[in-house]
Structures are given as structure tokens and as C-alpha cells.
Amino acid sequence: MFTVKSFRYNAPDPLPRPDRAWPDATITTAPRWLSTDLRDGNQALARPMSPARKQAMFDLLVSMGFKEIEVGFPVASKSDHAFVRTLIERELIPDDVRITVLVQARDELIMKTAESLEGAPRAAIHLYSATSPFFRRMVYGMNRDECKDLAVHGTRLVLKYAERLLGDCDLAFQYSPEHFADTEPDFSLEVCEAVMDAWQPDEQHEIILNFPTTVERTMPNVFADRIEWLHRNLSRREHVCLSVHPHNDRGTGVATAELAMLAGAQRIEGCLFGNGERAGNVDLVTLGLNLFTHGVDPGLDFSDLGRIRRTVEQCTGLPVHPRHPYGGSLVYTSFSGSHQDAIKKASDAMAAEAEAAETGVDRLPWQVPYLPLDPRDVGRTYETLVRITSQSGKGGLAYVLGQWQGLQPPRDLLVEFAGLVQARADAEGGEISPGQVLGMFQREYVRALEAPTFPEPADGPVLTVLYVDGGGIDAVPDRVDAVERVRHLLTERGFDLRAVHHTDRSSRKSRMDMAVYAECQAGGRAFWGVGLECDIETAALSAVCSALVRAGAHLAATGGGSWNSSNEPKH
Ligand SMILES: CC(=O)SCCNC(=O)CCNC(=O)[C@H](O)C(C)(C)COP(=O)(O)OP(=O)(O)OC[C@H]1O[C@@H](n2cnc3c(N)ncnc32)[C@H](O)[C@@H]1OP(=O)(O)O
Ligand SMILES: CC(C)C(=O)C(=O)O
């Protein structure tokens, strides 16, 4: 039985903050980003990245615009060390990019780490030591002072080896009190102050103080309170870059990072698509595109998110979840009818607005419901926007028919067709692909007219309405004439044609590409037929023929009567 174990687990104490200001703040600029895909991400893989994959990841990060890239833990393995050396010796680090390497506060390790950076034009050493009471007691066996001394000692060692080995390098320094979120706030501050006393940050030498959740155990607001408290209480604040390193154990890494920014964090460390230890590091794709969708420049290029996803999947060997925010294969796809209907209507409305304003849709504010952004802004197409299942309705079918064939069937036809598609989807239980939708539409409504052959209309159905949609009819100045020609043609043949409509904005592309939808009433219900032909007359005849044949077949099958369906034309 699953029982609550409050003796084992409890919420960390919040920091009393009666004067918190972050809830009223807004994010107006992007933070500095550090990608730790090649370090925290890589160390969490069952099969760490090969040199080629590391290089592909590095190239991707550079191409996206990352300026700070943690490239490994050089003393952890030969391959981490070799990768750092390759980047330096082959001069693969762009001038505006700083690589970072991680190391523990241990003499031998810091020396080797500094050695690994020899020849680098610019780099950062990232020193970490744990500060939480758990860790002090269970792992280090240290009291607070000893734990603080460990961090200070490590900082002095970085200074010592930097001076000895890295004189020509523009070297930055970063310190992380590991398990910060589980550490007493006053102790975190005390350790950071002591580290700063050793590093002596000034205008020329900032210090990056990086606060990790390490294991996410607090709610984002509790973390934000801590960050705001540090932001206000750290000395030498103008020389400190306040950085955060959220993990995602509670599934709130993104919220933690965003609230931390409100609270004063200037830099975020994370991984693309949230790779990293356990439930991952904070996802930089989501964070960046959250900014983008609020109109804030993330400073990172997400214009080809498909390429980013494929590269990350190849490098890590981990698939991105289909529902992953912004990048998942399904996140711009809607299956349910009312969503599809709204997407179709809003897309059409935006296209009309753009046309009226003589501008592109991409110049208008995004106003399509159920879609967080225009998929084209991240290099995704509209093709998979709408997928048809038993949850779909006429709006979705209108979208598919419009998108794939430029067809704009009238509403009543769509209502009928939706019934047919839904019956099939219900029976088969799966998705009906666009190809299947088009095939069903073709088989059901469209009949090629090899010769202008007709069933006799005499004692049968009444042809009520025609909808004409064609590039030709829109393009030619005599479009009224064209419609009149059709009316004449059909009435001459004895059809009682009640109305002819034509589309205002044709989606058919060429003059030779006409769509005509004909409705006839028979046996108390409507039957639709569609003609897709090169000229309006043939398309109209074809549509009428199809509607009549369908009506005739139905009446015959239901015993509702029939009419003379001779194939001989009247004329
Ligand atoms: C939250 C994070 O992601 S931190 C990054 C974690 N990444 C890694 O651990 C990958 C790289 N690390 C390694 O490959 C190895 O741990 C090495 C190469 C650095 C060291 O290996 P080993 O000497 O065999 O040590 P091992 O990892 O088993 O034990 C760690 C020792 O370092 C101490 N230690 C752990 N963290 C730190 C630290 N930040 N600063 C100083 N000492 C530390 C431990 O207390 C332990 O001490 P002990 O030898 O007295 O028991
Ligand atoms: C080294 C630090 C920043 C870390 O990875 C963590 O605490 O999660």
C-alpha cells in the first residue's frame, strides 16, 4: 500500500520573505546562457558521446549562438580531456565563445584541469563543492568551517595553477555551491563571500556564482525567494554574475529558472531538450522559446528546430518526446475537431487580413488558437498541423482538403463527408491519413466525365445549388459570364438550378483548375457531387452528374424510387 511517509520526506523550509519583489517583475531580456550538454548532459548518458558526437553537439551549440559552453570534466576521463585538447589545438573555438570545464576542489584535479586548458585563448574553470548539511555530514564528514575552507582552498588552487599554467588565457572563474537548494541560505552566502575574498572579483574579473538545485526538491517560488535574497545580500554584486543551474526532479525546472530570472538571476545553465542527470537539467529550448513567444529575443537561433532536435537525438541517443514543448513531433498537431475548426478558421482569417493589408501572414500578430506559435517560425511546416481521427470534425477535413488539394467544399458537403470519415475512423480505430481522406473524398464525390453523360433529371432530384471555385473564374473579368454559361447549360438540360455561388478568394491555383460542388435534393435529403476539371462547364457537368448518380444509388438502395438514368445526354 502506498502510504504517506512524512517521517521520511518533507518540504524544505521556505525562507521568510515578507519583502519579496520578484512576483511583480517581468522578463524583458534574455539571460546569459550556458549549455552544459557536453558535461552535465553527457555525464548522464549510459553511452557518453563519442568524439564525433561531441563535435557535432559543439558545432550545433555554436551555430545556435551559445557563447558559453561547458565542454566537459577533463579529469573525469581520457575522452573528456582529449575533446578539450582537440578544441584548443585545432582552434575550433570561435573568438566569441568561451569554453568551460568543471572540476572538484581537489589539488591534483585542479592542476590537471588547468593543464588541459593550456593554449586556450579564453576559457573558464568551474569549481564546485557541496555545501548542504546532508552532504557535509554524510559524504564529506565536515563541519561548516571545514566545508567553507574546501571551497576557498579550491579557489586558491585555481588561482595558483592559472597563474602558473594559463598566463596567456583570458580565464574566467565560476564557483557552484552544489546542493544549494538544500543548504542553509546564510551558509551559502558565507561560502560564496569567502570564495569571493579569495578570487577578488573586480571590473576586469567578474566571478560567476552559480546556484544549482542539484536535486530539485523545492517549489519554484521557494527557489526564487532564495535567489532574490542572495541577489540583495551578496557583496560586490556588480562584479558577480548570478547564475542558476536548475534540475528537473519535480518537473518544474523551467518554472524554477523563470522565477529565478524574475528574482535576479542573470545566467542560466541547462541542456537542449532537458537532457541531464535523472529527470534532466532545465530545458534551454523551452526557456528560449518561452521568451520568444513573449516577444523577447532569446539570443539563440531556433529557426530550424527540426535540425536541432535531430542533432540532439543523434548525439545523446535519446529520443525527444513527441509532446515535448515546441520541439516534439506532435506539438503542432491537433486531432480534436473543435481545435481543428478554430485553427482552420483563424488561419483563413489571418490569410485574409494579410491579403487586405498587402503583407505576409508572418508580419501579423499571431492569432491562431491552440498553437503557441507559428510553426514556420521554428522551421516546422503546416503539413502535420491537423491529423484526422474519430475525434475530428468537418473543420479538420476542411483543413486537410484545403491544405493538400486547395479545395474549399461548402459547409454542408463537409458535414456529410465528416460523417463518412468519422464512421471509418470509429470502425478502424486509428488515424485517417491525408492521403486516405483525399482518396475517400475522390471516391465518394468525384467522378470523371469521360463524355458529358447524364442521368435524366426529369422525374428525379432537384438540383439546388452549385458552388464554383476556380482560379479561372476569379482571374477572368467575365466571371459573371462564366457562371451564367453554366446556369444556361444546366437549365437547358432541364435542371431546376436554384442558386450558383462562387468563392470570393479561390484557393485553386490555375485557370485550368476548376472545382464545382453540386447539391441536389432527392428523397428528402441532399446529395453532393464534385467536379474537378479544366474548365467550368465540364466541372459543373461532372459535379451534377456525380450528385445525381449518388442520389440515384441511394434511392435505389433504400427503395425510395429511381429515375431514368440513361447515359444519353439530352443534346
Ligand atoms: C552535480 C554534479 O553533476 S557534479 C559533477 C559530477 N561529475 C562527475 O562525478 C564525473 C566526474 N568525476 C569523476 O570522474 C570522478 O569522481 C573523479 C575522476 C573526479 C574522481 O575520482 P575518485 O578519486 O575515484 O573519487 P570518487 O569520485 O570515487 O570519490 C570522490 C572523492 O572526492 C570527494 N569529493 C566529491 N566532490 C568533491 C568536491 N566538489 N570537492 C572536493 N572533493 C570532493 C569525495 O568526498 C570523495 O572523497 P574521498 O576520496 O575522500 O572519499
Ligand atoms: C556542478 C553543479 C553545478 C551541478 O552540476 C549540480 O549541482 O547539479
Report on this structure.
The chain has 571 residues and is of the alpha/beta class. It folds into 3 domains: 31-282, TIM Barrel; 390-444, Arc Repressor Mutant, CATH 1.10.1220; 446-558, Dihydrodipicolinate Reductase, domain 2. Helices cover 42% and strands 14% of the residues. It has 18 helices and 12 strands. It has an 8-stranded parallel barrel, surrounded by 6 helices. Strands 10-9-11-12 form a 4-stranded mixed β-sheet. Helix 7 links the parallel strand 5 and strand 6. The longest helix is centred in the C-terminal third of the chain and has 23 residues, at 536-558. Mean pLDDT is 90; it is low at 472-477 and 564-571. Acetyl coenzyme *A (ACO) binds at residues 40, 43, 73, 75-76, 104-106, 109, 128-130, 139-140, 150, 178, 214, 277. Keywords: Transferase. This is 2-isopropylmalate synthase.
Question: Short description, anyone?
Answer:
Residues 31-306 form the Pyruvate carboxyltransferase domain. The protein is of the alpha/beta class and 571 residues long.
Bound molecules: acetyl coenzyme *A, 3-methyl-2-oxobutanoic acid
CATH class category of the largest domain = Alpha Beta
Named at the architecture level, the CATH assignment of the largest domain is Alpha-Beta Barrel
How many domains, in number, for the residues? 3
Provide the gyration radius in Å.
Answer: 33 Å
Number of helices: 18
- The fraction of residues assigned to DSSP E strands is 5-15%
Strand order of the largest sheet: 1-2-3-4-5-6-7-8
Q: Can you identify the CATH superfamily of the largest domain?
A: Aldolase class I
CATH-assigned fold name of the largest domain: TIM Barrel
SSE order, one letter for each helix or strand: EHHEHEHEHHEHEHEHEHHHHHHEHHEEEH
Q: The biggest beta sheet, please? A: 8 strands, parallel, barrel
Overall shape: it is elongated
Quote the distance from N terminus to C terminus.
84 Å
Q: What is the averaged pLDDT score?
A: 90
Q: Uncertain spans, ≥5 residues at pLDDT below 50?
A: 472-477, 564-571
Portion in helices: 40-55%
